[in-house]
Amino acid sequence: MSNTSDSEPENLTRKLDDLSLNPTTTSTTTTPPNNTPQQQPFHHHHAAAGGGLFGFGDFGAQQGQGYQPYEEELLPPPPPPPPDFIMGGGDQQGIVAFDVTSKFRAAAGVTALELGELVKDGFFSLFESVGALEIMDPKMDSGCLAPGESLDEDYDVTKVLSPGEVIGIIDQMFCLEMAWYQGYPLSQTLLTNVYIDRMLEPEPMVLGDADFIRGKAVGEGETMHVVLRAYCLGVVKCCWYINDRIKFEHYYEEEDFVTNTYHRSLLDSFELDEINEELMAARRLVHSVRHTIGDQLAQALGFRLELRTAFLRAIELSVLRSNPDSLSLPWTQMEAVWEMIYKSRHLGTPVPEAFSTKIQRRLASTMPPRPIVKLSTEETYKHFKKLFADGIDVLNVLNYHDSQSLLQNFVMTFQSQKPQPLVYIRTLLQSFLFKDMIILGKLSIRHVIDDDLSLVVLPASKLLDPANDLVEAPHHWRYALAHQMETFRQRAAQSYLDIFRAFCQNRCRIRRTLCHSIQDWETVQLDAEQIDQLLQHQIEETPLVYPPTGDEGGGVGPTYSLPLSSWAYLYKLRLMEWIVQLGFELEIYAPDELGGMYWYLSELARSRARLVDRISFFTKHREAGQQAASPSAGQEAAFNKSRQYLYQTSLDAAITWEMADALSNLYAALGRLGLVVAPPRPYSTDEMRYDVRMKPFAAIGMPELPSWEVYRAATDRRQVETGRLLDDASLSLEQASRGLEVMERLSEKDSFSVGCFERWVGGVKGQTVAVDRAAVVVEVLKRRLEERGEDKKGDKELGLKVEIGKAVEGGHEWWVVPTIEEIDEA
């Protein structure tokens, strides 16, 4: 439809016929009321070709002249005008509309517009165009109704419910609640429940108003209403607590969770004790009518109310950060009750009409209507079961043993589970770690950093002696040590804590955050080198020759231990390794890029192994000096613990580089044999893709990023025969297998996995599975090359089919081992 215009000549005749015009006015859109005396309207055959209003000349002067018809009058008469629209319910004539469908079709015809062309008016903005698309589109227009459909839901919340129907409604709310935990908005989950909607709108001022039957006392015939109301109160209060917890921690709404409540109050003004009292009263009521409704139904309702009570109790206790054994009691209770709820699910009677998308029309949202997210009962059962298990597991972080058990193993292994813990559990972990900047509710940031420095580079060192803080004389050497160490702590603290916080995010966000963190650690390392130089003079450190004479590069000259910069460099290297390894887990690299990235990972692991070897050299020298001075039991324990950590880290680095070397050689051989073929990429080159993959490391000074030429030569290894590549891969896998055997024999304490030993062992076993599968692939290739020769290429000539996807089942996500299948030649 379109508005008429005074400048359109083809519409002039109809305008003069339809509109009453006063020659003394210029109004063209309104007509006085019918009961107002009017002059006779001009008829079009009285008009002359002169000027004047709408092309009229002087009427009196034209009466004697001959009539000259317009060209338009010679055309067929126009169709009758459409009925007038009355705007606003008044008696004023509105804008006249007419059908322009034929004109639009003619303008958009094949002869007028080519395929792909678009006519756009400069004043017709994107906002207006999107708004126009929404009108009468059921997918975009929340007010678009189907024939016979009402605007609001027709469900009667006052009708009497049977116990089975209440169980059915509660079980459906379980599904919607879990969908909300997984990141879907409340508008598509719990707020589609008619009972919850009536309870929250209008906002209740007292708890008695929080009812879907306002102003009506509950009688004997409405027992199930009391039960359902109490459960709804518990659900909404749980949502408020969880929503509030997540909002105060680091999360990403577009990736993890939607905290929007659409201007609905989630009972935030009511105390938890009031909600618990309603739940307890409902449980007592169910118990009192068990003879009427039957023991089975009474137990099923009681289990559901008990679960909600325990959930609120678990949330309430989580702020304490005290004894994990006491905090785990409600989680353990929920785990047991959930099994009973799942077994009694058959007692429920579904009530789908109690959930409606029409409620979305009344929510404060700019989003178009969306369907209700429906998880199956089996999916909901599995997710809730894992939620309760993770809730128990995350409490173990409160049992602090050492910094490496906390970061390396507990946080990392906990977050690497498949599926990953829900965002509420991850924010709960953040709360335990960082709330009020008190680590685990009992440790200062300085305590954790000093613990880590003592474990890695400074066991029993005077640099970490608390007695340094007691000296106030500015010229005393202890005062200088305390000042320089405090400067370093303040510089490194945020970067150190950011590692913990990064690993509390989803897997994609972890990698993205670490890419930014390594640049910060580069600066921390440079600052630490300056502080190391100042500390050398304060403690009168004697430089040593490293590597020792006789080793590779030995005899270069004496060097200092540089403990602080070595600590920062070690963390920077680990961050770089994690970035590359997460790239394999997240399937960022194409199959033909895997060999090159595994080669770069092996280079990073070698750098870490060399650094750990350097740290161990200076630590042993300091320990020898301490032995000469009869160290205390605490000092000996510190050196033993540091020695064990450096051994475990060196072993891990060796396993990483051997496995990475093996897979790099394996993929180089597969590419050379034509079993892994790069897809056509007309808009990029290998060097451009290399720059993209290495962009996070381009600004890092040490280790220096290899050039494209070095990377290509190391990845292709054209000077090495294919058989030799496979032999090297086989040898590397043997070395990695031996290292993993040693790793599996480590105890919980020696592996620094206190509180997460089972997950740590599972990771080691996963790497062992990856090594065994890779060894099988290498042996199959070697045997086929011996049978058919190295000049054969492609799957048909070699009779092999290679598939590259995610990590093998039971393996490890960081080691992508191809699967190989022998093709039947018949």
UniProtKB/TrEMBL annotation:
Keywords: Cytoplasm. It is found in: Cytoplasm. It comes from the Eukaryota. Residues 395-744 form the NAA35-like TPR repeats domain. Residues 19-41 have a biased composition (Low complexity). InterPro entries: NAA35-like_N, Naa35_N, TPR_NAA35. The keyword Hydrolase does not apply. Residues 116-276 form the NAA35-like N-terminal domain. Pfam families: Mak10, TPR_NAA35. The keyword NADP does not apply. Residues 1-47 are annotated as: Disordered. Its main location: cytoplasm. Belongs to the MAK10 family. This is N-alpha-acetyltransferase, non-catalitic subunit. It comes from Podospora bellae-mahoneyi. The lineage of its organism: Eukaryota, Fungi, Dikarya, Ascomycota, Pezizomycotina. The gene is MAK10.
